[in-house]
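Trying the structure run again after the queue cleared.
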Amino acid sequence: MAEPPDQTRREIEETRQRIAQAAEELEGRIERTTNWRKLVADYPIESVAVVTAAGFVVSALILPGIIATIRKSVSGQRGRGLLNWIRPIVVPVVTARIIDYMRNR
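Done. Tokens:
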């Protein structure tokens, strides 16, 4: 026996409202979960701990390769060229920072 059209429409409307409500709740949950500024504000110590741990992990993975590359570059003839290329860039920047620091003390 077939349901009356009014009852079917009512059920469809109720289902549509339940789906819309569930979608709104899910959207709210996603927004709360992905709002990192609120998470940091709510959990500042934990946030610092997580970022620090992540920094240690990343540095442990990347730093050995960087150090090996620098050692290889500096140990050979190519290393002197590398240092001669880096020195004119680094020295003025460091010097300027030191002068700014001393002036603003």
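The chain has four helices and no strands. Worth checking whether this holds up in the mutant runs.
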